[in-house]
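Discussion board: Methods & Data

I've been asked by a reviewer to show the raw model output for two of the constructs in my manuscript, not just the figures. I'm not sure how much to include, so I'm pasting the format here to get opinions. Each protein appears as its amino acid sequence followed by a line of discrete structure tokens. Is this the kind of thing reviewers expect to see in a supplement, or should I convert it first? Here is construct A:
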Amino acid sequence: MKQFFSGDVSQPVHSSGIKGKTGEHIHCLFQGMLLPEEDEHYLILGTIKDITTFSEKEQELETKAQADSLTGLFNHTHGMELVTKALLAKNPFDTCAFVIVDLDFF
């Protein structure tokens, strides 16, 4: 939210995490606008909604989509994304090796 209030984010909708009173992480959705007033002051008009439960469910679904439900191992698509990311991040002159094991009828 600091980006929104500092003017770095011009979108009327912004998602951010904040700390609650007891230190817990709360994921919030801020919808609003900054209305300019006199002397470089702004009026903030909007709402803040707690979307922590929604974010947790979204993360759970993403995790389930990336892994096999029986073994817990990454599926082919997510595995290829990880390999691609690792290859792009490494020095092209360094050596590396990947071992892929395909288990059938286990």
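Construct B, same format:
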Amino acid sequence: MFEDWRDVAVWVMVVLSVLVAFALPVVAHRYIRRPGAVREMWLHSKPGRVIGACVVALVVLAALGLLMAALAARYSFMWATVALVAGSMVAVILVLVRFLTHDKSDLV
């Protein structure tokens, strides 16, 4: 199966990348569920900055994901990068949804 030690190293990195891709949304969810996390974002940013940053991040991640998916058609180990991009997008979406649905009455 593996002809060289470099093949093993590549697939170890693929496995680690996929594990990180699954961990990113979990870490983001735990962070954003902290009682003061949304309040900190709201108090320390200008109006619309958090939403704008999330939208820009999603657009960049979508473009990067499409590029990596095209490369993964040729190089199979690039699917790990696609998984990282997908995990990052889920993490950003979690933050955005929590920020938008948070009760703003306790922020004033």
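Answer (T.O., handling editor elsewhere):
This is acceptable in a supplement if you add a one-line summary per construct. For B, something like: The two ends are 61 Å apart (CA to CA).
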